[in-house]
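TL;DR need structure tokens for one chain.
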Amino acid sequence: MKSVIQSSLEDGKAQDVVTIDLHGKTDIADCMIIATGTSAKHASVLADKLIKKIKDVDPYAISSTEGLTEGNWVIVDTGDVIIHIFKAEYREIYNLEKMWAVTMPEAAELALV
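>> reply
TL;DR here they are.
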């Protein structure tokens, strides 16, 4: 599934595609893929085409989607892979790469301080 997602984002000209391995960090998914659209419309179109490609592979793979209408931050959840497609300024604000780079033991130590 990960290769289908990456291929769809690449074909749609998504920018700055990053894959984050979530093993050992959370049980919510195996990995997270983050990409940037050049505009809200581009982010929505990327997500729409991605959803269609995922459904072609597995009609039941998508458990939820959020933000398709607005396109500022679109989330597509397949259970094993969570895809975030941002408009550039929203990606900078939320900076998921930095948040998920913290390992769980370090995060637990920070919470105790």
